[in-house]
Specification:
Blueprint lengths: L2 H12 L13 H22 L7 H22 L5 H16 L5 H5 L3 E7 L4 E5 L2 E4 L7 H12 L12 E5 L5 E5 L9 E5 L8 H7 L4 H12 L4 E5 L5 H9 L8 E5 L11 E5 L13 H8 L6 E4 L6 H10 L6 E5 L3 H13 L7 H11 L2 E7 L5 E13 L2 E15 L5 E7 L7 H6 L13
Parallel strand pairs: 7-11, 7-12, 8-9, 8-10, 10-11
Antiparallel strand pairs: 1-2, 1-6, 2-3, 4-5, 5-6, 12-13, 13-14, 14-15
Helix pairs in contact: 1-2, 1-6, 2-3, 3-4, 10-11, 11-13, 12-13
Length: 451
């Protein structure tokens, strides 16, 4: 039995059909019952008459037009007293239930919303302009929420049930979705959707947002052109992937780029790009392809650049070895709260590879592989800033040495309560300046002057 049929049966259990009466003549509770009754009749008619295809946008538009036609036909015959707004509301609800994601569809269509978080049927939060807000959207009950979850995962060829209660996947539009259900989610089914922008941010956008300055953008562009190995570090939701995407846009057009991600989020515009994505295990627990598998395979694909969306585990060792064996100019991200912290995290990840390496050997690998750390932070006001650009300058004894090139300095708050600050040079020139000069990159003499 398909989703639409089950939804129709749920609605039939909830609603007893009544004689069509003008909604305007009823009290609020009666009006609500009549509304449900009318929507049920329309829904049943849609189930019977509409063939739903998700092959392309033209198919979806045809389905939407057909649904609106049915809505108008039923209303004209049974509820002609409905206002235009009420008719449009019914049509929108039916469309959202059949070809959309139910109540959360308007949130996903809102360009100001970056993330949608469903915590059970009665609580839906959104992130808008970096701030979390409780929306007024709810589901009827857990069953309704489960139906929407099925609508999300079924086209992806994924399964979610008690034996496999978690799904992490990419929607057809590129948005990333994570779903976890009971018994693991105690408050009911939970959905987290990080929306995918049709128009990815550019370097000019990040300069306008204050994430970086024009001088820092020029510096990062020079580092990418000089084939430095760069890691973008930051906490969850700090904007690492966005910054990685912008930095990757500096890669020259004539290079072959291999991107490796758990769920493809990078949106590079260069012509010669090969995009690789991991695969979860099947129902029998077999067939998984990990980031580490793809990193190893990418070395046989004649890459000029390897970009790993995020390193979390043993693939860090393979990434470091690639950087140290001729695949310079590679880029990746990782979770850490400071440049020093990312070094400790990389050590831990290398040990997770199963290789029994001495700590000093691991640190030597890191210090020789990583040239630059770009630290990204989500500030208390919700804004996302690059707070450190730090050079990995070598080793002293058993300790990896770091040198901050640019540091973000807070300067108080503006009239709207937003944090004011600037990413300023520390006065130290990076030790890889000779490498920049050898590749023909010339930076302004005062770029690194302390302010």
């Amino acid at each position: 039995m398909g989703l639409l049929e089950r939804l129709a049966m749920d609605k039939q259990d909830e609603i007893k059909p009544g004689k069509p009466v003008s909604i305007h003549a009823q009290k609020d509770d009666q009006k609500e019952d009549l509304y449900k009754d009318l929507k049920l009749k329309i829904f049943n008619k849609v189930v019977e008459e509409v063939s739903i295809s998700h092959d392309n946008e033209d198919d979806m538009q045809a389905v939407e037009d057909e649904i609106r036609k049915i809505v108008n036909e039923v209303i004209e015959s049974e509820a002609k007293y409905l206002t235009r707004n009420e008719r449009n509301t019914i049509a929108r609800d039916i469309i959202n239930e059949t070809i959309g994601f139910g109540p959360i569809t308007p949130l996903l269509n809102d360009p100001e919303i970056n993330e949608v978080m469903v915590n059970g049927p009665n609580q839906v939060y959104v992130e808008r302009n970096g701030k979390l807000e409780l929306s007024d959207i709810t589901f009827r009950d857990n069953a309704h929420l489960f139906h929407i979850i099925e609508r999300i995962v079924a086209p992806l060829g994924r399964r979610i049930d008690e034996s496999s209660p978690m799904v992490d996947a990419r929607l057809p539009n590129g948005s990333r979705v994570n779903i976890i259900i009971p018994p693991l989610a105690l408050n009911g089914p939970t959905i987290t959707i990080r929306k995918f922008s049709d128009n990815p941010y550019t370097v000019n956008d990040l300069i306008r947002f204050g994430t970086m300055t024009a001088e820092v953008a020029q510096f990062l562009k020079a580092c990418v052109e000089a084939r430095l190995n760069i890691i973008v570090s930051g906490g969850t939701g700090s904007g690492k992937t966005t910054t990685l995407n912008v930095i990757s846009s500096f890669i020259p057009e004539d290079e072959r780029i291999i991107t490796i991600e758990d769920a493809a989020e990078l949106q590079l515009k260069q012509a010669h790009i090969v995009r690789l994505e991991t695969r979860p295990p099947n129902v029998e627990g077999k067939g998984a392809i990990s980031i580490r598998d793809l990193v190893r395979n990418s070395l046989r694909m004649r890459p000029d650049r390897i970009i790993v969306g995020e390193v979390r585990s043993g693939e860090a060792l393979d990434m470091l070895q690639a950087m140290n064996t001729g695949h310079d100019g590679s880029l990746t991200t990782a979770h850490a709260n400071s440049p020093r912290d990312i070094l400790s995290r990389l050590e831990t990840m290398v040990l997770m590879s199963g290789m029994d390496l001495p700590v000093r050997a691991i640190r030597e690998q890191i210090s020789s592989a990583i040239d630059l750390i770009v630290q990204q932070t989500r500030l208390k006001d919700g804004s996302r800033k690059i707070t450190y650009i730090t050079e990995v300058s070598g080793m002293e004894g058993d300790v990896i040495t770091l040198q901050d090139i640019f540091v973000y300095k807070e300067e108080g708050f503006d009239n709207n309560g937003r944090i004011k600050g600037r990413l300023v040079p520390t006065g130290l020139k990076p030790g890889f300046m000779d490498k920049l000069l050898k590749t023909g990159v010339v930076l302004p003499a005062d770029m690194f002057s302390a302010q």
